[in-house]
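Q: Protein A?
A:
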Amino acid sequence: MGGAVGGLGGKPVLLTGATGFIGSAVVRELRRVGWFDWGPPLVVLSRSPPDWLAGSGVEVVKGDLAEPSGLRGIADGISTVIHIAAQIGGDAERCRRVNHDGTKFLLEEAEKAGIRRFLYMSTTAVYGHGPHRGISESLLAPEPVSATSLSRAHAEREVRKFGGTVLRPHLVYGPGDTWFVPGLCRLVQAVPAWIDRGAARTSVIDVDDLAGLVVRLMGLSWGKSRGAVFHANHPRPVTVREVVSTVCGELGLRLPVRNLSAEAHRARTRKVLPGLTDHQFDLLARDHWYDSERLWRRTDVDPGGGFAEKFARSAGWYRTHISPDAEEPVDIGVPET
């Protein structure tokens, strides 16, 4: 990895969202590959930088993308912007200010600084309702169904117009996950039944694998990737049955013993889990898997083993950090309201 830094030229990299689920995994991956020993400096934008970040060998710039007036010149001297920060949920105005307007501000600063390397972390949630079955990036147009996804779809459009690169993961799991697996556990416990035998197929990715792809891209020349969109998932989809069986087995939860049709299951979840939206339920009831081969070929990274093998590495973290019995609104994947 130390020699694969084409396009950086020794100049710093700007990272947003470093304290979040995916962004913190990127920092971990940079540390794992020894970036802070041989790589260009890392500049991190954070609203409230925690102590661990300040002591991790990065330069911290304190600020908020929703109020960027004090961040003028943030891209000066930078080679690359890795933009992972996002507003997930909340009111439409906040989503617009952070996701669309904040991204547009960063792009304007990059333009002023003469930077062309800009990577934006989006989500397959911009596609809206499924089913989606193995569609490639060029064959499926965004049709967002929430304020969050609408603002991120608008941000994507600005990034692509600029010539930046967009990544769209689907369901992300691993250390730091507060949405996907915790929500799945509460759903299985509240309604212990398969949805149409768990036959729906879905795309997933381990957060450390996603971070590895980002770090790999940081070190590559982007001539072929400007304006491109990549699905960022493990290339092999899994069934919901495999996901549930693996999670329950690793976390000591009882497997569903009955089978219900999607309609019957949804009627029951509406009563016992009112926080679960139709869109979130749909992610487990119908196919949502995306052709993700291009990104792995572009980065020349081996995706490695399947879900069961990779989830086992994170199971200890989940046992320590989540409470499947918690009575909270259930969210599956990215919260779409």
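Q: Protein B?
A:
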Amino acid sequence: MRVLAAMSGGVDSSVAAARAVAAGHDVVGVHLALSRDPQAVRESARGCCSLEDSADARRVCDKLGIPFYVWDFSDRFHEEVIEDFIDSYARGETPNPCLRCNEKIKFAALLERALALGFDAVATGHYATVDEDGYLRRSPDEKKDQSYVLGVLSSKELQHCLFPVGDTPKPQIREEAAQYGFSTASKPDSYDICFIPDGNTQAFLGRTIGLRPGMIVDQQGQELRQHDGAFQYTIGQRKGLDIKTPADDGKPRYVTDIDARTGTVTVGPREALAVSRIKADRLKFLHPKMVGDIDCQVQVRAHGSVAACRAHIHRSEDWMELELQEPLSGVARGQAAVLYLPMPDGLGDVVLGSGTICETTK
């Protein structure tokens, strides 16, 4: 099988490529150049897809004896990930750019080109598995499981995906990389937004969106102070509110709602964050059981826990409503709601599909 190995320059994709070679596939490595700045470098080991990462990926491919290429996807990345990120915050949402990058770039765009060039599959270093029936499942390494950010794929795309490291704990992956002699064996994981390498999201949004003054108000609409832009806040936020007047009950305040149109940021007690219903659109389907009314579990953050729910799927209208058995806190518009079906076989929960949260009921 002809396999295109997506090489981020990290340890996971390095071992994924090595395992694809060991499996007897005809493997070619490719690194995606996503920055419009050709001199972009990794800052404090926070981001990914930098010049250093490209060099690391090349060295791995040289050791494996496979071809290596760099593909420039920077224009598409800027349009479909960075601009989407900015627009989403400007609407008062809290997007996940890594999830959108998986959806639009690392699988849709990359897979489209790979198939056009005659490759059969794309291999990545994501921690998830595909079972013998072709369904996406959680990784056995719960701490590293990335099935949530893969929940935006389509079933057609999944047919051409390989996740060679998805069934292995991370420490073992590092040991395997060291055995191969890869320089990436001890390389730190990237953990921030790649196009904001210093990690200062508010400063980035301030430069791109600009100042949009508005008011922070309490649950009764009383004005507490002015702010410079609603994009500085997210649902569930507690720190950085800088409100001088304490609440009547003396308890901490949290951001409970954001109205980007008026610039109003509402704050209130922790209990005001409780959400009992979630509406999501832009649905993606990965399993035939994601239809009609189903009992399942939902995850609304990349590293969040799951909650039991009753999902009402309106496929033809492209939306779903989730009735939560127990309220969830800090659910923000723009995040993904990924549905899971628990499985008794111990091989990881099955991913049913996903939607983008557009409305919540408290």
